[in-house]
Amino acid sequence: MLAWERALTRALATVRLNGITSKILLFAVFATLLPAFGTGWLSYRNNSQTLTENVAQQLDGLASHAAQNLDLWLRERRYEVRVISSSYEVSENLSILRRDAGGPAGKRARGRLENYLESVWKRFPDYGGIAMLDPSGAVVASSGAVPTVSDLGDGWVESIRGTEPVVESPRRPASATPIVRVTQAVATPEGEPLGFLAVEVELRGLYRLLHGIAPDPMRFELLLVDHEDRVLASSAAPVERLVGARLSAAASRALAGSEGLAYYTGSRAGPVAGIARDVDGPGWHIVAEADAERAFAPIRRLRNTTFALVVAMLLGVGLAAYLLGLTLVRPLHRLTG
What we know:
Layout: H1 3-14, H2 19-85, H3 88-99, H4 104-123, E1 127-133, E2 139-144, H5 156-160, E3 166-167, E4 179-187, E5 193-202, H6 206-213, E6 220-225, E7 231-234, H7 249-256, E8 262-265, E9 271-278, E10 285-291, H8 292-295, H9 297-336
Antiparallel strand pairs: 1-2, 1-5, 3-4, 4-5, 6-7, 6-10, 8-9, 9-10
């Protein structure tokens, strides 16, 4: 403690409080404390609400932007599969295979079909494989990694019948890269079913898409999550690093039960503020997260600054009122004496 602080402490300790001095001191303290506390609290509440709304708008903008881009990505994959399946090479060779599967014409048709699928597969680096299936679901031609009849599931053939490509729920094979299968029914102009075109699309490229929207992982992170709360892609890490990553049950409940910001413990090993938006896909949704400690640091600084100012004003006005009381009371004491 400095010398002047010690002297001031001794002086205050030796001065006797009397009624007038106490009343002046209490009046000054309350006259200062109430307006200062009220003004500080209103300022803190308004600024806190404004900052929370800004964080919510930022996260909502990121999530909506990412959802729109993923909707576009899915439409492009559907369009590609529709174009591939409508090729003359596909319909013509499938027709030949149907008429003469085991004959020479059928073998030549299968060879041409496999060559066509191979050429298409090489043009799309995100394709894990392309397969042509007959109406029963058996593979008749393929390129790259292809589905097997055993993993198609019950009722798979019936679910694909139609004119629009079907996007199935994603899965993560042993390669650790999540894959989504897009399937299109192939039929003759008269509507006679010929088979199905199944394309397995790797989700590796979604890291680049999400990272381009939220490039700073210290501030924001975008997560693509499926209906089972599995994390399929992230703006902060390639998909190969997300093996086994899931949203916690608490995070899923918080996001589902909140129309605005939800607060929970996320993958950052700390409190996060998040918001979720649906994607036009097989139960997908985008989760935009912000580190709560970093995002709301200005609120804590404002709170601490407001508290320090109120305390400083209280001490300053209290000391001034006390000294003023002494200047009024001491002459009265001398006059009385």
